[in-house]
């Protein structure tokens, strides 16, 4: 810890406390995340261990970089590159939709980071605006890998208690014990719509409310619409029957003027997980052909929680 100067607290959450500091060795500002060890009978929390084990092997511009791990005086610190804030706070500051250029830039970077993780056999499983870090140079990076999992073939059963409710794929809401990289794609589609509208796409307050919000928006699965949904543990024949609708109806009218924007959204927000467009293929979609690194219109604060 003697290698750090000007250590200032910039935020606190359930996971621990985040500090901004000057790294003497690296000659730059970094973020120190102190993991709370109090009330942890098993020592270091499993989420912290998972994040460490996964991030130490991930090296990509679209993934926040873990620089070091420090354990001293019964305190655990994770040293990260410094990012200024997260996408949720940026959208709160914007107070409305992001510009088209920023959306394209962020979406391209998110897909690049996600495609890399999937190529490394890593499911993030908790993509949401609060876990996407941004800076004042137009960069956005995947962060908070506490719920991530490394997967192998054959896929083994996973818990469905993952992914923050609003961004949780319908197969997980229906109790699927086996799922794949497509759960991250559903989350990205929800984030895409939120950047475009300035509003959360499916803000449910419980699992059943979340599921019914999706059904009302896209239609209740049945013979013609994702028939395999009936095979999932928590599907019920008694579910209310809402008519099928196109995903494009969830986008603002201004966005729908661009057919490429609509098509990419519909390819990612598909019910059937096997038909959702993978991240690596989404990167080749015409909507992103002119994407370029773009700085947001609002001034990003440099002393917020990362």
Automatic annotation (TrEMBL):
Q: Which SMART domains match?
A: S_TKc
**Pfam families with a match to the protein in the record:** Pkinase
Query: Which sites bind ATP?
Result: 33
Q: Which UniProt keywords are present, listed alphabetically?
A: ATP-binding, Kinase, Nucleotide-binding, Serine/threonine-protein kinase, Transferase
The terms describing its cellular component in GO are:
cyclin-dependent protein kinase holoenzyme complex; cytoplasm; nucleus
Which parts of the sequence belong to the Protein kinase domain?
4-288
The entry's family comment says:
Belongs to the protein kinase superfamily. CMGC Ser/Thr protein kinase family. CDC2/CDKX subfamily.
Superkingdom, taxonomy of origin: Eukaryota
Q: Which GO terms describe its biological process?
A: G1/S transition of mitotic cell cycle; positive regulation of cell cycle process; positive regulation of meiotic cell cycle; regulation of G2/M transition of mitotic cell cycle; regulation of gene expression; signal transduction
Name the EC number(s): 2.7.11.22
Q: This protein is called what?
A: cyclin-dependent kinase
> Reaction(s) catalyzed by this protein?
L-seryl-[protein] + ATP = O-phospho-L-seryl-[protein] + ADP + H(+); L-threonyl-[protein] + ATP = O-phospho-L-threonyl-[protein] + ADP + H(+)
Q: What GO terms are given for molecular function? A: ATP binding; cyclin binding; cyclin-dependent protein serine/threonine kinase activity
Question: Could you tell me which InterPro entries the record lists for this protein?
Answer: CDK (IPR050108), Kinase-like_dom_sf (IPR011009), Prot_kinase_dom (IPR000719), Protein_kinase_ATP_BS (IPR017441), Ser/Thr_kinase_AS (IPR008271)
């Amino acid at each position: 810890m003697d290698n750090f100067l000007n250590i200032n607290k910039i935020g606190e959450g359930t996971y621990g406390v985040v500090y901004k500091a000057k790294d003497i060795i690296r000659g730059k500002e970094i973020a120190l995340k102190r993991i709370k060890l109090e009330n942890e009978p098993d020592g270091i929390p499993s989420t912290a261990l998972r994040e460490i084990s996964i991030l130490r092997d991930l090296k990509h511009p679209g993934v926040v970089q873990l620089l070091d791990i420090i354990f001293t005086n019964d305190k655990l610190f994770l040293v990260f590159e410094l990012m200024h804030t997260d996408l949720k706070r940026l959208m709160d500051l914007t107070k409305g939709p992001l510009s088209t250029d920023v959306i394209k830039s962020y979406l391209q970077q998110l897909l690049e980071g996600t495609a890399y993780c999937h190529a490394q056999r890593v499911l993030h499983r908790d993509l949401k605006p609060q876990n996407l870090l941004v800076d004042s140079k137009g960069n956005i990076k995947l962060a908070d890998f506490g719920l991530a999992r490394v997967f192998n073939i054959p896929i083994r059963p996973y818990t469905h208690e993952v992914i923050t409710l609003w961004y949780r794929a319908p197969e997980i809401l229906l109790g699927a014990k086996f799922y794949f990289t497509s759960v991250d794609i559903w989350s990205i589609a929800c984030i895409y719509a939120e950047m475009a509208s300035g509003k959360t796409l499916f803000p449910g307050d419980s699992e059943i409310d979340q599921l019914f919000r999706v059904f009302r928006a896209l239609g209740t699965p049945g013979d013609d619409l994702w028939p395999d949904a009936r095979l999932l543990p928590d599907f019920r024949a008694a579910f209310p029957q809402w008519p099928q609708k196109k995903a494009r109806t969830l986008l603002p009218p201004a966005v729908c003027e661009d057919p490429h924007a609509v098509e990419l959204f519909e390819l990612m927000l598909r019910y059937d997980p096997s038909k959702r467009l993978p991240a690596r293929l989404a990167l080749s979609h015409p909507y992103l052909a002119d994407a370029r690194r773009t700085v947001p219109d609002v001034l990003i604060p440099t002393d917020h929680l990362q």
